[in-house]
Design a protein that fits this description.
Layout: E1 3-9, E2 23-24, E3 27-28, H1 29-38, E4 45-50, H2 53-61, E5 66-68, H3 75-83, E6 90-94, H4 103-114, E7 123-130, H5 133-137, E8 143-146, E9 152-156, E10 172-182, H6 183-191, H7 196-201, H8 206-210, E11 215-219, H9 230-239
GO molecular function: 3-deoxy-manno-octulosonate cytidylyltransferase activity
Organism: Chryseobacterium arachidis
Keywords: Lipopolysaccharide biosynthesis, Nucleotidyltransferase, Transferase
């Protein structure tokens, strides 16, 4: 299989505008993410897909690959445009605001498709266990619930599942926004109309569920910092 990684990058993020151009250590957030993905050595090609000339120039001047796209509501739609004419089988979507992603979780996502003999999985992604009440209740943390085989049942910014039976312990999982797509499923996704649940939650992978596609979740112990707010940026600076 030919496997590529694409980093969708939007300059005007709604919660934290220009976050990808903030300095993290000695480099911008987007350059840090790009170089970390490239250094895994897992991919036939790595590039940034953006509608921002500022981000495009930032990547190119640092020796990276970038492509310009039109404006899109979701990162997956942006990637679909970017890869439409690229010969590949699997597309890994690494969020531009996840600069500390490591090699092992990416390898786990790729393995999903080597083990998918019936080719029934459209998308694979990551989840990590949440234990702190504040983190579980934080709407910036997208929670996910899965069936016994690890297939997603639903994603939400609300607390899911609701812990009504307090005598029974329940696990909570945060969805980490790293996706691995079959290319044809990604192209199909971009042509599908947004449905009410996706619009309400503003979680793009809900679109797959609303149209009956299968999403496989892999549990990881990787703890990174997704940069959604200025406070997250400060956490990332301390980590680096």
């Amino acid at each position: 299989m030919k496997i590529i990684a694409v980093i969708p990058a939007r300059y005007e993020a709604s919660r934290f505008p220009a976050k990808l151009m903030q300095i993290l250590g000695q480099k911008t957030v987007i350059t840090t993410t790009y170089q970390n993905v490239l250094e895994t050595g897992l991919f036939d090609e790595v590039f940034v897909a953006t509608d921002s000339e500022i981000i495009f120039d930032e990547i190119v001047k640092n020796g990276g690959k970038a492509v310009m796209t039109g404006q899109h509501e979701t990162g997956s739609d942006r990637i679909a445009e970017a890869v439409q004419n690229i010969d590949c089988d699997i597309v890994i979507n690494v969020q531009g605001d996840e600069p500390f992603l490591k090699l092992e979780p990416l390898k786990q996502l790729i393995e999903v498709f080597y083990n998918d003999e019936n080719q029934e999985i459209s998308l694979a992604s990551l989840k990590i266990k949440l234990t702190e009440k504040e983190e579980i209740e934080n709407p910036n943390n997208v929670k996910v619930i899965t069936d016994n085989n690890g297939f997603a049942l639903y994603f939400s910014r609300s607390v899911i599942p609701f812990h009504r039976e307090i005598s029974y312990d329940v696990n909570y999982f945060k969805h980490i926004g790293v996706y691995a797509f079959r290319k044809h499923a990604l192209i199909q996704f971009s042509k599908l109309e947004m449905k009410p649940l996706e619009i309400s939650e503003k979680i793009e992978c809900i679109r797959y569920l609303e149209y009956g596609m299968k999403i496989k979740l892999i549990e990881t112990n990787f703890i990174g910092v997704g940069i959604d707010t200025p406070e997250d940026l400060e956490k990332a600076r301390k980590l680096i």
